[in-house]
Amino acid sequence: MTLELESDRLVIAALATLLVMLGAMMLGGSLGQILFSYTIIAFFGMYVLLGVKSTAERHGWRPFLITVVTVVGILAVVFSALWHFHHLNPTYTDPVYWLGFPRATAIVVYALWMPPALVLMFAYPYLFDDYIWDSKEIEKFDEMERTRATASATGGDD
Q: Where does the chain cross the membrane (predicted)?
């Protein structure tokens, strides 16, 4: 198996990101933790783009890049807030509560989990018919359903 620079750019970028993450873990300390946090965000973005690569090559990268840049931007801001509040009170001796949780937990629950999930939750159905589901896949799905219905009607195993 060989990597081709032009067609495997995302795979090569993901491998480079993993090497940076490994270096950040070996570096340790605050700098290593911050570098690892932002590198994992980039890795998540590349993972999503790698998943939509064949679809994006048929239709264009623009809608997927907008979605990923939005999610990565949200994650970068939220991780910055987490690091900022961590450095204000690293021992958590007197935690400040937001919406019923300690501040860091509230940021994770309300800012780290929800906005990216909502962006992806609304982007996926919006992009599905135009970009993800194509006529070949519809034909495959219909054929599988016909085969399953025939097997079910004749008493065959599913």
A: 10-28, 34-52, 64-85, 105-127
The verdict on residue 156 lying in a domain is no
Please enumerate, as own/partner, the contacts of 54-61 that have beta carbons within 8 Å and a separation of 24 or more. 55/131, 55/132, 55/134, 56/131, 58/134, 59/130, 59/131
Give tens-digit pLDDT for 90-137: 777 778 888 888 888 888 888 877 887 787 788 778 777 777 677 777
Is residue 146 in some structural domain?
A: no
Domain count, the chain: 1
CA gap 18, 12 in Å, rounded: 10
For residue 96, give its domain range.
9-130
Q: What is the pTM of this model?
A: 0.57
- Does 139 reside within a domain? no
Tell me: pLDDT of 7 over 80: no
Average pLDDT over the chain reads 79
Residue 63 lies in a domain: yes
DSSP state of 102: E
